[in-house]
């Protein structure tokens, strides 16, 4: 039996008529799609080749929206409910944060009218959903082989990976987990469910035979728990940034654990200015920094810096 692709798994969230339009797009174009967007009472679109295109009923990709499939309120409601497995209130944390991980590692993000807790001032829920963005996961086995050989060929080291948003950081981390998890005890901190894509405790992606998965944990809590209970050689986590992340990662390093992390930044100078990443770099915690390319070299290592020099 043929395994469904990541896009096909993501497409199952859509109502039938949008699914049909999407699957009418040529296979070669579908395979390069990175996002699917639904905007209430507007149009169905997809991002590929770094650009957003509108989709027609016949599967043509257009620059203009005149012939595009119009998205109804019902289309939004069906997609939203499918993303939450038919039980929105079973995922209060995801609802308040504005995204949920779906089968295959894709992520459905959404926006609408925020529901604010009057005491804390924090967002507790979202109502009147106006847009849904399905970010399609891409498991590119082997994409990190070259980086792994250069950084971890001789021994374990700590690495930070930087790129602008949608630059391939998550894909690179996933493959590094697969590679490193063949040799070392790895703790994979999968806060948003995009790295391992766990369903009922089983990983949907190949993340290595010696990898332990902390799925859905707040990052800081997961890092501290991993160090205490799983004795990892290395911790892998996505998108560090908060003061809590910084404290937890310092705790891990002081416990003798190596780190592989990612951060939004388009240059090494920008990376060094990030509050958490910059402080860790200044402390000499990372041995290397990898800057990923954009455009035609998106997801590939553009420059590898030796931070020990």
What does this structure look like?
There is one protein chain. By secondary structure, this protein is of the alpha/beta class. Helix content is 30%, strand content 28%. It has eleven helices and 16 strands. Strands 4-3-2-1-7-6-5 form a seven-stranded antiparallel sheet. The chain has a seven-stranded mixed sheet with strand order 12-9-13-14-8-15-16, with helices on both faces. A two-stranded antiparallel sheet has the order 10-11.
**Number of helical segments?**
11
Shape: globular
CATH architecture identity of the largest domain: 3-Layer(aba) Sandwich
Beta strand %? 25-35%
Q: Largest beta sheet, briefly? A: 7 strands, antiparallel
The CATH class of the largest domain? Alpha Beta
Low-pLDDT segments, ≥5 res: none
Superfamily at the CATH H level of the largest domain? P-loop containing nucleotide triphosphate hydrolases
Report the strand count.
Answer: 16
How many domains? The number is 2
**Looking across the biggest beta sheet, what order are the strands in?**
4-3-2-1-7-6-5
For the termini, the CA-CA separation is 52 Å
The whole-angstrom Rg is: 20 Å
What is the subunit arrangement here?
Answer: single chain
**Percentage of residues assigned to helices:** 25-40%
* CATH topology descriptor of the largest domain: Rossmann fold
Structural class designation: alpha/beta
The SSE string, one letter per element, is HHHEEEEHHEEEHEHEEEEHEHEHHEE
Mean pLDDT: 92
